[in-house]
Target: Cell division GTPase FtsZ
Amino acid sequence: MQDKGIQFGFIGCGQGGGKIADLFARHGYKAIAVNTSPVDLAALNGIPPEYRIRIGTRLGAGKDPRIGQEAIRTDAEKVQNVIEEYFYYEVDFVLVCACLGGGTGTGIAADVLEISRRVGLSTGCLATIPLLSESLEEQKNALKGFDILSDVNPTPLYLVDNQLLRLRFGDQAILNFWPNANEAIVGLWDEINQIPNRLSNMFVFDREDYFRLLNTPGCFTPLRIELKLDGEEGPEWLANAMREDVTALLSENNFEGECSRVAALLVCPENYRINAETVELVYQECQNLTNAPTLFRGLYSDPNLTDSVVLYLILAGLNPPNLRLQAIRNKLQELSPEIISRLNRPVTTNFGDELQDWDTPNPLPAARRSFAAPNSSPTVAQVSNVVKLEEERGDTEADALEESLSETAAAQEKEDYKVLTMDQVMNLMEAGTTADSTEYDSAFWDQFKLNNKKR
Model:
């Protein structure tokens, strides 16, 4: 990090914050990732494995910030030890990165801030606001997470609105959207952090100036404006062009333009003959638009620029984007009753209520059901015969008949099912037809034989 003005360390909280911190690591900064999900941690390539800290025992937080809070408070000592080991001697300033709306990042960002302060490091926060298209639960989590962050007062609080990134990169392929959006955040921060190391024989923005901006309470945002040169500009042209772009950017970010401190860093091509009047008009315009009582100036030349001028505008001590946050709050308040009623709605499971006779027993006796098991117990008729015999002949004959029926039932239990061939069935039918009616019911067999021939 020799070319960096300030030696930043980044702690990524949750999935989105971890990806931002991982991108900072690939830009040459020290970074740590803290997450409840081992899968999210495994996807990070820039952060060394020993500095990807898994907290808790779950496989994620399921968009529930309470799970994140429980996990970080259980493993706070483990996180503190890694921060102290990796950051304490080589990092000037720690920035905690979190995407508000999820479970882990929203739940642990404030605690990670406090842990970093406990180590003795200057600490701020980079947080994102979810897209308008994201779920209502994520919008609610974002508001609650912002309230919790406000309680611990991160200095500074760099608040990024993902909706603005969508307007800027939304026409790109989905695989490129988030990488390019994250690169816009990380790349701009890295560009500005290289300026304090640049040499200049004009206005210099040094490390102490940058530290003072970072230690200003309130919201913090860096802006980059690039204007093409055509060689026919007058002294006021640059200031007027800057005014239009600065006003548009402040309006997009829902800032009213009032801040405590501002840095205006102008970078021009080496061969561009800019006069003093033009530069002073640019600085004056920046201070008027932001109403900042303190203005840090920087004027540099860059051999890589040929036909454009770049203005880096760093605003510190801003109020939060209240209009954007209030719009989320209003939407949630309007839809809360509907959401609550939907959550409390019982699931319909009584699909059989309209079916009649659902519990009516089968009217056929078990012996007549085609799906019944073979009936090994005495029939009703057999039992009634036993009762009659007890009344007419006395107990002796009745006991003998009852014993005979029991032996018959036992024999039936031991006897297996027999599979008859068609010839055997036909022989039985013939025997039934010619047998004595007292022994067989010939009418039944005649009908059975007739039906069998029809089939």
Notes: The chain has 16 helices and ten strands. The first helix runs from residue 14 to 26. The radius of gyration is 42 Å.
